[in-house]
Write a structure and sequence with these properties.
83 residues, alpha+beta, 3 strands
Length: 83
């Protein structure tokens, strides 16, 4: 499978640190992220490089489960901490 990069832009009435905390709380994803039905941690703790999870989402009326791995967080984490 080729590497895929997705970029989204939007405005949220919260600090970058609060947004980052929500996005990286894998165990609460099904209650905080629209479309996420369930998340199962496969490897790792927290949201560190190498953390793997299976995530089931419902999009366009269909459910799909994908295994994902956290890769490079340096730019994102630095921006959240700087805010």
């Amino acid at each position: 499978m080729p590497n895929t990069e997705i970029q989204l832009t939007g405005h949220v009435a919260a600090t970058p640190a609060k947004v980052w905390a929500v996005l990286t709380d894998l165990d609460a994803a099904a209650t905080t992220l629209t479309g996420v039905i369930s998340t199962e941690r496969v490897a790792g703790e927290g949201y560190a490089v190498g953390t793997r999870r299976r995530e089931t989402r419902k999009m366009l009326g269909k459910e799909a489960t994908e295994e994902m791995m956290t890769q490079d967080l340096r730019d994102i984490a630095a921006a959240a901490e700087a805010a």
